[in-house]
Amino acid sequence: xxxxxxxxxxxxxxxxxxxxxxxxxxxxxxxxxxxxxxxxxxxxxxxxxxxxxxxxxxxxxxxxxxxxxxxxxxxxxxxxxxxxxxxxxxxxxxxxxxxxxxxxxxxxxxxxxxxxxxxxxxxxxxxxxxxxxxxxxxxxxxxxxxxxxxxxxxxxxxxxxxxxxxxxxxxxxxxxxxxxxxxxxxxxxxxxxxxxxxxxxxxxxxxxxxxxxxxxxxxxxxxxxxxxxxxxxxxxxxxxxxxxxxxxxxxxxxxxxxxxxxxxxxxxxxxxxxxxxxxxxxxxxxxxxxxxxxxxxxxxxxxxxxxxxxxxxxxxxxxxxxxxxxxxxxxxxxxxxxxxxxxxxxx
Length: 347
Known about the structure:
- This protein is of the alpha/beta class.
- The chain has a single domain (about 1-345), classed as Alpha/Beta hydrolase fold, catalytic domain (Rossmann fold, 3-Layer(aba) Sandwich).
- It has helices at about 50-55, 105-115, 120, 135-145, 185-195, 240-245, 250-260, 285-295, 320, 335-345, and strands at about 1-10, 10-15, 30-35, 60-65, 80, 90, 125-135, 165, 220-225, 270-275, 300-305.
- Helix 2 packs across helix 4 (about 135-145).
- Mean pLDDT is about 80; it is low at about 75-80 and about 155-205.
């Protein structure tokens, strides 16, 4: 496996590219672009590399997107602590918060376009480019699924300080066969890249939902949504995610734009979704409302609801639980195998 980091409209995109197998040298593989969760204020490492390695073991090229969040600018918010059970952040925020909607979305769109444009070089099936996310990261993935053909999804920025490839060969050497660099140096380089990303702007197109011509390059072929934040409506939403993305004060218009179930249509790609009935941070109604909207739009959906398990399970095992018993939920661990079946059967 080779690991590289690329630029997706100013966001680091960490690629985990599988080597070619000698008995099938021309084999093309699915690609999964992964968006960890974190309430749009941080990105959970529990929902990043451990999941990417599982996907690699299932035969997928995987990409982790360090999309922009509210706390990437130190003047935006002060992270107080992470709730020990939900994994979601508790933070202090100013009364007036900027609209972030469109920033991370444009970065994910750029990542999809980059992966699809280099499908021959990376041996990727260009018709199996999936977006995946957990919690608020799943909201981002689903946002591209419903907004890919709108102006708001167009990449909005690019850092001149970043080249197309920032870090090469962290695992297994560079693309040219060189020895690569140490993981410590790679981490330092990635942190330096993140420090250069300025996520705040008064972009007048931050909420532009007009149709966008020639947007096919941004369309994901499928969505993989793990305990997703979907709705911005009071009573079932994760309020912190809505505020961090849409800014404050919140209006009903902002809540409606955030509420992806209101924007599903025939253009929305198929989805694999899982949630737990017992999730008290992001209620299961988020997935149920999305499933209902996709059913009414005639879009294929595979939905799994497990009876037990808190929010933020990731792989639901000891590895991603870090020793916390509430993150180790054996009955939910099967979701990754179910996903593998869904990916293999995708046509």
